Amino acid sequence: VDHVLGIKYLTPQDIQLVHQTADQFKEVINRPIKKVPSLRDITVANLFFENSTRTKLSFELAEKRLSADVINFSAAQSSVKKGETLIDTVNNILAMKVDVVVMRHPNPGAGVFLSNHINARIVNAGDGAHEHPTQALLDSYSIREKLGDISGKKVVIVGDILHSRVALSNIFCLQKLGAEVMVCGPATLIPKHIEKLGVMVELDLRKALQWCDVANMLRVQNERMDISYFPSVREYTQQYGVNMELLQSLDKEITIMHPGPINRGVEITSEVADSDQAIILNQVENGVAVRMAVLYLVASKIKRN
Ligand code: CP
């Protein structure tokens, strides 16, 4: 693929190739000398029009481990604040001879739009409530690492499905790899007709957790939300928060995931987040190897003279 704009556009073979390539990079970055020359002479621009901790730092580290030249742009400190458009911003950055653009943007479809207007490879680092493909690639990689083959595994995505790009990308990715996917949350935070994507819907958290092998707990995205959608935070935590008592009442041990940032004490207690059942920091660790794989595969299509 030329760009990584969404999991929707990837085949199961593409996803497996990313995982296999990430296996090799994970081995590399656990060596004393972590750097490889794969992206020497490739310039990557990280354009963040929305806040980020994990994705931004993980891409930057992945690029540096691959020996790319890296420039970073945050909209909050840029001339976007003076009214410069997305296309003008990106064309000015590309005039500096950039090969790959990693972009996070609040508008769904921003990456697709850009790919039709500029001559560089685009990697979507999250576009509004649409897709977050590298998050789904690292989430599925982390499930595969913990539980083996994803085919046949049961994964429930819990919480604010309506506003979540992580949910949509995970649904596409896990289904392409043969997993069964369920969503669970308040009816107000589950998109109407989501069953058409082939997912099951369960409003009762206990039943959902009893069914699954893996629960991916999402953050309630207050910044994307009209308050009328939502039960109060206290009601949400009572009905959809995961605590140790609930986990221990199940008749099996399930794996807990969270893409971060966590609202500790809301969707998940600290005791659960920091327990052996949680693989939250493994997800973050794997993010570097998975993003190295994505960048390596995207850059391998660039002609170098
Ligand atoms: N998981 C994730 O996208 O986190 P950030 O918003 O901190 O990048």
TrEMBL record:
PROSITE patterns reported in the protein's UniProt record: CARBAMOYLTRANSFERASE
Record field: catalytic activity: carbamoyl phosphate + L-aspartate = N-carbamoyl-L-aspartate + phosphate + H(+)
Name of the protein: Aspartate carbamoyltransferase
Major enzyme class: transferase
Protein role: Catalyzes the condensation of carbamoyl phosphate and aspartate to form carbamoyl aspartate and inorganic phosphate, the committed step in the de novo pyrimidine nucleotide biosynthesis pathway.
Keywords: Pyrimidine biosynthesis, Transferase
Quaternary structure, from the entry: Heterododecamer (2C3:3R2) of six catalytic PyrB chains organized as two trimers (C3), and six regulatory PyrI chains organized as three dimers (R2).
Gene (UniProt): pyrB
One BP annotation, GO: 'de novo' pyrimidine nucleobase biosynthetic process
Domain Aspartate/ornithine carbamoyltransferase Asp/Orn-binding: 152-297
Aspartate/ornithine carbamoyltransferase carbamoyl-P binding domain: residues covered: 3-145
Annotated EC: 2.1.3.2
Pathway: Pyrimidine metabolism; UMP biosynthesis via de novo pathway; (S)-dihydroorotate from bicarbonate: step 2/3
Binding residues for L-aspartate: K82, R165, R219
SUPFAM superfamilies cross-referenced by the UniProt entry: Aspartate/ornithine carbamoyltransferase
Gene Ontology molecular function: amino acid binding; aspartate carbamoyltransferase activity
UniProt: carbamoyl phosphate binding residues: R54, T55, R104, H132, Q135, G260, P261
Entry similarity comment: Belongs to the aspartate/ornithine carbamoyltransferase superfamily. ATCase family.
Superkingdom as given in the UniProt entry: Bacteria
Lineage: Bacteria, Pseudomonadati, Bacteroidota, Flavobacteriia, Flavobacteriales
